[in-house]
Amino acid sequence: MNATTLPFTNDTPLCYTKNSPPFPKFASDPIASPAFSATFSALGLISHLIAFVVLLKTFRQTHSRSRSFFLIFLGGLVVTDFMGLLITGAIVLSYHLTHFNWRTIDPNCHFCNFMGMSMVFYGLSPLLLGASMAIERFIGINCPFARTSTMPKSRTITMVLMVWFIAGCIALLPLIGIGSYHMQKPGSWCFFNISSEGNDGVFSLIFSLVGLFSIIVSFLLNTVSVVTLIKVCCGKNRKQRRRDNEVEMMVQLILIMIIATICWCPMLVFIAHTVLSGAPLNYKQLLLWLRFLTWNQILDPWVYILFRRSVLRRISPRLDWSQGSIMTLYPSFSETVRRFTQSSIRTQDSDKTEETGKSNTPPSTFQPPPYST
User: How does residue 2 score in pLDDT terms, banded at 50, 70 and 90?
Assistant: First the structure.
């Protein structure tokens, strides 16, 4: 179906009041090329299918309760990203293949609203899941006794469902008047209206701040967990308990956080800056940051696929994997940390010894000789 321009009238549906397809100026723009959408969608879907098979196999073989909790979160993240790519990618590719006119096939904006909700839901869910995973690891490493050994796996599943529920509630806000979903250039997708005006500005800030808050929470809690884990692995009692699972989970979680930060922060900061400054929306920058978001969905599954002990053993078979700690994953780094830790401990001990010695030393009884004239 060829795209034809329909004029604005008083009866124009809300989602077409800002932008009405088609957009001929964007037809030849490289950033709007259908090759990007097709390639990214195919890579993302294939990667997530592989990751899902790997996670399912690992989940069946694991005997660690904390590891199984973490795998449930990873499974929720894989399913979320896969469904997001499948739904939004199918709509975008259908548009590029048929060049349908949205105003003709979707005169009441139902389809556009559905895609806008999908973009928001499948965008915020991975960030909220990342923060939930950071909270779970923080409790597991720093407060191990706060989580009983009999805690059912259904509680972790409930947390994943709660994250989806929160993201779904935020995605539904434009349908009750807080924000609005609009057609976006080059006419292949719908998203909320990024504007500083009224409820559109409120929803834009909600989306941006929730995403940034999730990234900040992940960064802070993961940093504390890594520091605690290094202290445990490099301490005097490091051989009393194997730390294979903790190290592997933290390495994967840190990489997920780094990828999400690099891919999501430009878009979230761009939205917040556009709203707070009142500047007009730059559509080319919006499309550029959207490409960054797609890289997040492509790279995430390869963290689960590649950064596993079984894979790392094949890559570096010479390493002593029997130790099962961070010391074997990064020997040079661990040796540096161990020396620093030991030197700090010695310094503290010597300071305490000197202070104790000074406090226990009796007052001097030496009397100077009388001054003679």
Answer: very low
